[in-house]
């Protein structure tokens, strides 16, 4: 069986309700689908494949979202799930994780208990190791865990040891009662200490504080793998302690490995980690997230790649739908405001680019000169990705700028008179027009899937080498292109024309402590009236569409297994 892995899925889609068996119905005993739920708006559907959101802690059945759970089981706990309302991307996130033997036994006994309640006239609570538990796990192994089925049949003995050891979760009966008609060969038998199946759910770290209740009323105590209480449950805590697979205990449940996939759910408000690598020393870093279009998303599970390079084709560049100043694509000494729309200079010239760039069409944005003391200066304009961040804008072939002092325009460190200067209180406009018929204009953005993935502070990034010399040699002019600057709504004329072909980002370079704010639109203080343009803000969703199309075409045109695109060598 192929088991689903981490993925982002469109919400909600109608799919058939999935059950272990079709027997679940209104005839369930006392602990039915409503048994553990105190939330009328989020009632449980025991016996069906349910997923609990790790943020809002609500439960959802498989027919709520278009998630492929054909290889899953009811009462599974080895997964991470975020509903489309809670997840930062607006899509549903689902990741199956590797289960240990305790989790597998818990799931097996829960399913056997539920089957007995719905099918047997006299429901059982204890089940034979040889006749019930081991056959069930053997039949549904691929659905219960992502671990490979062991080659040697030693796991049945390990299962018995696990259930005998975990007495806070499992009941053990080694021999039949005196006078019982049960055959001796049916023993030992095992059952769940806590028969309230609604208490079974995944362990999420954030539930420990949200659901911090006493465990004294819970028979299962630490029964739930990992700790948290099932949302909408009966109010019984499920775990002050978490026993690890090796038998050790900790006072609080801790992740033994930081999961960058799950960390991606906790991005700051403006979609980028606060601690991140900077583009410098000839390398550029692009935040990565799981690619929902990857044919084999189950490969995302980190246990499969322990000690191995994670294949880049399972990830994609993570883009925020708003155009802002980039946190990583800047000189580290520049100070960026929390809303990522204001920047303050520091010491010598250094630069920051916007998060999104353009490759064709006409685009416009504004910059307000908030504070400009006498000994400060600014160069503002447009830059390609390889423009030097530790230099003024217009220093190299990849950028074009307009300087505050004397209104000089710069390209390749050559300054030419252009207009009068600008200063504090001025609002400047920046217009670029790029032809639609160039090679760059017809190309889709880079997928970065052939680049190395690196981990930094629990997040994954594509690492791209800057081949500046080769890029400079390959530059060619784009006939018909032009850049125009505006001051307080007045055009200063064409500053540059037939500029080099490429992808251009709004860019700011500052000298010493001046402060400027950028407005990407769609509403401007001085919108140009004699030209047509798109506000840079439109590029937010535009880039998402372009990158998604590039990712899909990448997977359509190539096979996933064994594929590696050749790197760009100088």
Automatic annotation (TrEMBL):
The lineage of its organism: Eukaryota, Metazoa, Chordata, Craniata, Vertebrata. Residues 302-525 form the B30.2/SPRY domain. It is found in: Nucleus. InterPro entries: ASH2, ASH2-like_PHD, ASH2L-like_WH, B30.2/SPRY, B30.2/SPRY_sf, ConA-like_dom_sf, SPRY_dom. Residues 206-215 have a biased composition (Polar residues). Pfam families: ASH2L-like_WH, PHD_ash2p_like, SPRY. It comes from Taeniopygia guttata (Zebra finch). This is Set1/Ash2 histone methyltransferase complex subunit ASH2. Residues 219-237 have a biased composition (Gly residues). It comes from the Eukaryota. Keywords: Chromatin regulator, DNA-binding, Metal-binding, Methylation, Nucleus, Phosphoprotein, Transcription, Transcription regulation, Zinc, Zinc-finger. Transcriptional regulator. Component or associated component of some histone methyltransferase complexes which regulates transcription through recruitment of those complexes to gene promoters. Component of the Set1/Ash2 histone methyltransferase (HMT) complex, a complex that specifically methylates 'Lys-4' of histone H3, but not if the neighboring 'Lys-9' residue is already methylated. As part of the MLL1/MLL complex it is involved in methylation and dimethylation at 'Lys-4' of histone H3. May play a role in hematopoiesis. The keyword DNA-binding applies. Residues 201-273 are annotated as: Disordered. One of its GO terms (cellular component) is MLL1 complex. GO terms for molecular function: beta-catenin binding; transcription cis-regulatory region binding; zinc ion binding. One of its GO terms (biological process) is positive regulation of cell population proliferation.
